[in-house]
Structure formats: C-alpha cells, structure tokens
Fold this sequence. Notes:
heterodimer; A: 6-stranded antiparallel beta sheet; elongated; B: 184 residues; mainly alpha; 6 helices; 0% strand
Amino acid sequence: xxxxxxKIEEDKTKTISFVFFFLIFVYFAAFWLIAVLSVNFFxxxxxxxxxxxxxxxxxxxxxxxxxxxxxIIGFVHWNWTTANLIVKILGVLKAxxxxxxxxxxxxxxxxxxxxxxxxxxxxxxAVVIPTMAMNAFALADFSGQAVIGLTEGMLARLTRxxxxxxxxxxxxxxxxxxxxxxxxxxxxxxLFSGVLRGFEAVFRGGGRQGGYSSMRVSARGGAGxxxxxxxxxxxxxxxxxxxxLVRLFISRQxxxxxxxxxxxxxRDPLSLAEALYAISYRWxxxxxPAQELESIFIVNPxxxxxxxxxxxxxxxxxxxPPIDGRLGILLDMAHSDVxxxxxxxxxxxxxxxxxxxxxxxxxxxxxxHKDGAWQGPFDMMQMMTLGWMRPETWVQRLGGKKVQMVxxxxxxxxxxxxxxxxxxxxxYQCPKCSLPLNVITYEGTEVHKCSSCRGTLVEEKDVQRxxxxxxVGFSERIKKIAEGISxxxxxxxxxxxxxxxxxxxxxxxxxxxxxxxxxxxxxEAYRVEVDKCFMCGLIWFDGDELEVVQYMIEHSLNKSRx
Amino acid sequence: MIVLWILLILxxxxxxxxxxxxxxxxxxxxxxxxxxxxxxxxxxxxxxLIPNLVETAKGYMAHESGTLENVIKARQQAVDASSIKxxxxxxxxxxxxxxxxxxxxxxxxxxxxxxxxxxxxxxxTSTENKITFARQYYNDEVNRxxxxxxxxxDNFIASKFKxxxxxxxxxxxxxxxxxPKVKF
Lengths: 562, 184
C-alpha cells in the first residue's frame, strides 16, 4: 500500500486535541491541588487540635468551578501559544531568510522545491540558522504554513544529495503531520519555563543586590506576600513537572517513520545514512539556542544517554531514537554498510580546495586629450595619478568611438570628483584607493573586492558564512601570516592598533562625512585588524586579512576536534 | 415488513459504498492529472533553460559545435512531441544529449568555473531532479488509480462511470534508471 500523503493529514488532529486536553488537565490538577491545600490550611488555623488532612474537602460545584477556570486559562494559553507560532520559534532559533544571491542558498531553495514536487506540491519555506553546527529542523502550524531550516554548517559540509536526503526527512515530518503536533507540544510549555526562570532569578538574587526590591516588599507586606509568591512558584513547578510528561506524546518512532518516508520521497537511503553519520559523529552542534526545542531537530543537538539507550524508560522519555538503529535500517535499504559510509564521509571532509579567486584589474584603457594632442593610453590607476585630469577633459576609451568628457564617463567620473566620493557605476568605492569595488563571488556569497589593494568589503553576517564554508584553500603566505599572529598571541606581545584619525576609513556604504569606520581586532581570540562600520555593519578587510581570519578559525577548530 | 427493512438497509449500504468508491476514484484521477501537469511544468522549464546553457557553453567550446547542435535538435523534438509516448522518447533522447554535453564540459575548466555556467548547471540539475520526482509522484498515483480501476469490486463502479487506466511515464533505457544526480 503506497503511502498516501493526502490521507495521513487527517490523522494528525488526534494527537493535537489530546495535547489540548492534557494542557487543561495540567491546569486543573494544579488549581485543584492548591485549593485543597489552602482549604486544609484554613481548617488547621480555625481549629489546630481537631485537624486531620482531607483530600475530599471540595464540593462538586466547587470542583466544577475550578475546572471551568482551568479550561478558560488553558484556552487562553493555547491561543497565545499557537498564534504566530512559527515566527516566535524562528526568533528563538535566530533563523534567517535565504539570500537569493548566495550560491549555497540558491541550491538549498532548489532542493526544497524539488522535494516539494516529490510530495505532490506541498508548499514549504526554507530558512537557515547561521551557525557552524550541523542540524536541521521542520516546523508547521495550523494555517498549513511549513518551514524547513538547515544550519549553515550543514549547507557547507554536506553534498547536494545528502542535503536532499535531509530535506526529504524534514518534509516527511511535515507531510505526515507529526511536525505540527511536535511544534505545538514543544512550544506549549515554554511559557512555564520562561516564567519559572524569572522567578528563580528573583529568589536567587535575594542575597545579592538584585533581590533587594523583593526584600523590601517582604519587609513591608509581611508573610502574606512571601506565601503568595511561594504558592505561585509551587504552582509553576507542579505544572512544569507535569509538562515533562508531554514527551510521552512525542514518540521516538516518528523519526524512524520520517526516515522511511524520506527514502520514499528521494529514493536515496545511502545519502540519508551518510548525512546522519556526518551530523551525529562530527558536528552534532551544541550552540543552538534551544534546549526546550530539541524535538524539532533531525538529531538531538545535545548528546543524551536516554536517546542512545533502549529499554522502556528510553522508549518513553527520549525524543530521538539511537543513531545506530537509524543507520542500520537505512543501510539495509541501501545494501551498504557502516564502514563504507564512514569512509565516504571521511573522504568528503578532505575534498580539494580551490584557489582564492584572483580578480584582474579593469583592463579598459583610455586616451586623454591634453594641450591639443591625444595622450595615453592610460589604465585607471595611471589616470588617477596624472594630476592634470579635469572633469571637462576629453577622453576616449581605447577601441571605443565616443569622445566624451571625464565627468560623463561613469567608470572614471570618481577620479575628478574626490570631494564627494559617490557610487561609481552603481558599486561601492574602495575606502583606500577610491577605485570602484568589483562584486565577486567568494565562498558562494557576494563580496566587494578592490582590484588594486586586494582588500575586501563584506557584510557582517556574510563573514560568518564565509568562515563556515570551506571551498577555498590557502596559500603558504596566508599560513605564515596566520601562524605569526598566533605566535604573538602566545607571547602576549600584542600589537597596538593604529587609531590615528587620519588613517581611519570612511564607510563606502554610509559615506558619512564625519563618522569613520572603527578599527579593531576581528575578535579578541583572532587578533586580525579589521575596519568595521557600526552604522551598517560592513567590515573592511585589507588584502589577505579575510583569508587569515578564515585560516586561523578553521585551523583552531581542526585542532580542538582531533 | 422486516424483509422490506432489511432490503432497504442493504440498498442504502450499497449506494453509500458506491458513493465512497466513486469519490475515491475521482480523487485518484485528480491526483494523477495534477501529477501529470507537474511533469509538464518541469519539462517546459528544462526546455527554457537549454538555450541559455548552449549560449553560455558556445563561448568556451567552439570545437564541440556538434554536441551543442545535438542538444538543440533534441530540445526541438521534445518541444514538438505531443503524445505521452512521443514525449517519453524525445525527453529520453534530450537527457542523453545533455549528459554527453556535461561530460564534455569536464574538459573545459574555464567553462566549469564560469559563474553563469555554474548557476545554469545548478538550475538544470534541480530541474532534472524535479522531473524525476514529479514522474515518481505521477507513477505512484497512476499505480493506485490503475489498481483501483481493475480490482474487484471497485471495477463495477469504474467501468460504469468510465474511469480509465492511465499510462505510466517511464524510462525505456535501463542505464537511465539511475537518478541523474550530480555529486559535487
């Protein structure tokens, strides 16, 4: 019986209504317990001698009122959680939209579209998390919106076929409907955790200056306030404990099932096995900002003993099945074995690098008219140093027919208008040599590079991407510079940054008349000097500096891993 | 009286069953149609991409004009084909010419490094995968439709309301059964 993607949609509502009633039950249980405790407390105060503890002190009508109250609160809670659900979670995960000019992102978008075709046309959005970790997740909400997210580390390190398999796995969660249930159950109780953390901060801060406002309150309001606070704390703790039980609904079986559907979608079990192996044994990836959200990921971001175990307890409380089990099933389908996969992934980690792309300077040359005679030809650098160029000097491109004045030619206009550097030909100008910067593709993303001083202008968030990706290999010169800097660091012989205002650069994007870019180290750990604009976030790397930063970070990562 | 009731209930049950089967068949037929239109969309996309690809490649590989002309010819055949059978043959031929084109590009490092060529290559890879997946979806749905149309007792309803078997969209050449995936 083929797996019908249209039919399975109907099953998903069951789990979800179950979770809804569980939420109301949690509230009811908490309120009821508190009511029973407080009634007993008042009974004790009224007559301490004749007091015995009873659970059955509430009348039926009172219980009913408590239930109604719990229902209303639960309903509000439910609606609060499910409204804008995806946007909220994406915010917590710091996910970003795709950049259509980025080669890796184009590929990712294509892959999601392909898998969407395989499911018969389910619409899915794609987002990325800019971290080095390797993981993937899927989200869905009631409106039918669905999102698949991958980390940049994953996009950089896996092959196209492997990414396809992973996206297939995530799409399987979405079409089989379990994604919706998972998304809602995981986010449902985050509210509690958040408030509880706030409370704990207040209690812990009691001794220090942070808790001084609560101390003053207690001094004035007396025991009543403290008892009230304790009660709320208790209430939250009870609900939080109960909410741990919600994991019972998130069966680890669904990961096996999603693997199976992924294979049905992409018909490529080997790539999925390779991807799972690569993720789990190399870069499972802590550093994702989401402990409560572990259920939505393809592999649990934190290694957990419960996950890797068997037995009843593991079956009940873990959110992910053991990787070995998943690999075993997939490799059976692919008629392959673990050793082959390991070899493949190892080889992939050492894929050949390409050379750093060198750009040629503009080869256009101009003839210039001076004192009644044509002079030249000059290239752009020569023209800048001529000294007698005026805006109304006649120029002609070598090989071109049109004779025009300098200010009419977009490419060289900037030579004569030093007073107001602007955009030459739509591009930024090099902050050092005022030449127009060339837009080139470096590590799959767009950067602006100067053909003369070889400096590079990069958006701040793209720097992270460039560092994560590993297409480009480094020359001996880069290695020497990087090693030199690390040696200085070890000797604690720090260079002073030259912050002479005359040498500071003007941001080519903001072009602010007075503000300059800040000269600083890339980070304290990697002491490479860069210039950063704090208004727009652009970073200027002098020639080689970007590669040096890349080399240093990559190198220290490799060291810490082996 | 009781017999009448039983008869009535039986008739009602039969009608309900018939309605359910009918609706199911309609659903299957629509899915298959939808799958076919997906294939069509992707094939058209492929036809649109090829002229750009040839234009870009031309600049780098003047000596391989024969390969390029083959691709153009195969594309034209594929565009002109109308019946499912013709389409299959033409598309298969187009796939094989494309494969030989990409095999030849391996000899031209400059072409492989060309930014636009890389992008076209990625787009074409993606479209090839989409065609594969669309065909896979279509064939799955056709399989379900055909099974339902032929199996007892659904075949009564199917023949009454003229639900017909559909043709699969298949690959004839065995070597092409490997998905045209490109590993970078």
